């Protein structure tokens, strides 16, 4: 294809996404502050750059996959950030950072005539490996079309969901809160069944052909929890961060979030008690150890 793209943030999720672009035939210029992560993607065939600005000096389309709103804002608008780049025209922000941060990025980048694509992805490391990675984008249609080939090279399913950056963030936070809520409730109810003497695997088998089934029971329980492998490849604190952002977004929009708040408090508690770096499926152990406490 001989088209060069930029990619900033090649950690647990960013590297698999960057590798997809390499496999699709794109050349990549990449940057990460973690030398080991950078070396790994360079070994896959990418070229390293010393800063986010250097990436934006080299290419017209830059992807970013970063762990927090603060880091995303610094990479996009800070010193030696993307906004300082001389060549970049389109910035594809795939991080989960909330609508307010995305709107600030749109304003700051717009002042430099850089278009922003709010383009979170869903599926996580396990979905990426299974070929079920979804990307949904909020940006003006012309901007979406200008970057569509690159977006399709990175994702399995692609949606244009709105014209305004920030809209896709709202949908991503809704999705991730549902993921956390489904997993939390599934764990609590399977533990309840177990306390009554029902085998966990049997409980899951019944639920998965009944009305209570969800991705948590159909995939996470079967592949990660029943066998105690706890290896989704996604950190607990990242999903906890997303639940906090979802609550903030619901408050901003004035929508109900009573059940969501209970889920957010439990995941935040797990991080507070030192489990943030655990695989997110280990929330099972945290909930099980809490026993009957509410």
Automatic annotation (TrEMBL):
SUPFAM superfamilies the UniProt entry points to: 6-phosphogluconate dehydrogenase C-terminal domain-like, NAD(P)-binding Rossmann-fold domains
Short name of any one Pfam family annotated for the protein: NAD_binding_2
The UniProt record lists the keyword NAD: yes
NAD is among the record's keywords: yes
Cited Gene3D superfamilies: N-(1-d-carboxylethyl)-l-norvaline Dehydrogenase, domain 2 (1.10.1040.10), NAD(P)-binding Rossmann-like Domain (3.40.50.720)
Domain 3-hydroxyisobutyrate dehydrogenase-like NAD-binding: 166-286
InterPro entries (alphabetical): 6-PGluconate_DH-like_C_sf, 6PGD_dom2, 6PGDH_NADP-bd, HIBADH-like_NADP-bd, HIBADH-related, NAD(P)-bd_dom_sf
Residues covered by the 6-phosphogluconate dehydrogenase NADP-binding domain: 5-162
Keywords for this protein: NAD, Oxidoreductase
Name this protein carries in UniProt: 3-hydroxyisobutyrate dehydrogenase-like beta-hydroxyacid dehydrogenase
Organism: Ottowia thiooxydans
Lineage of the species this protein comes from: Bacteria, Pseudomonadati, Pseudomonadota, Betaproteobacteria, Burkholderiales
């Amino acid at each position: 294809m001989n088209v060069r793209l930029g990619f900033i943030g090649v950690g647990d999720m960013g590297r698999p996404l960057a590798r997809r672009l390499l496999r699709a035939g794109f050349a990549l210029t990449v940057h990460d502050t973690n030398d080991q992560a950078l070396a790994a993607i360079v070994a896959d065939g990418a070229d390293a750059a010393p800063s986010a600005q250097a990436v934006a000096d080299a290419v017209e389309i830059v992807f970013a996959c970063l762990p927090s709103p603060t880091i995303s804002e610094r990479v996009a608008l800070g010193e030696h950030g993307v906004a300082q780049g001389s060549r970049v025209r389109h910035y594809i922000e795939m991080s989960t950072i909330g609508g307010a941060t995305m709107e600030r990025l749109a304003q700051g980048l717009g002042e430099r005539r850089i278009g922003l694509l709010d383009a979170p992805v869903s599926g996580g490391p396990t979905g990426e490996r299974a070929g079920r990675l979804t990307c949904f984008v909020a940006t003006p249609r012309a901007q979406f079309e200008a970057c569509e080939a690159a977006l399709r090279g990175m994702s399995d399913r692609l949606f244009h969901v709105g014209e305004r950056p920030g809209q896709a963030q709202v949908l991503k936070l809704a999705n991730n809160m549902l993921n956390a809520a489904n997993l939390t409730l599934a764990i609590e109810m399977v533990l309840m069944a177990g306390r009554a003497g029902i085998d966990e695997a049997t409980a899951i088998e019944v639920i998965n052909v009944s009305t209570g089934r969800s991705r948590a029971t159909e995939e996470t329980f079967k592949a990660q929890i029943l066998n105690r492998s706890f290896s989704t490849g996604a950190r607990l604190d990242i999903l906890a961060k997303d639940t906090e952002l979802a609550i903030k977004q619901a408050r901003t929009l004035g929508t109900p979030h009573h059940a969501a708040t209970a889920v957010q408090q439990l995941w935040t508690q797990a991080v507070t008690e030192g489990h943030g770096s655990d695989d997110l499926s280990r929330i099972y152990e945290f909930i099980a150890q809490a026993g009957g406490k509410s």
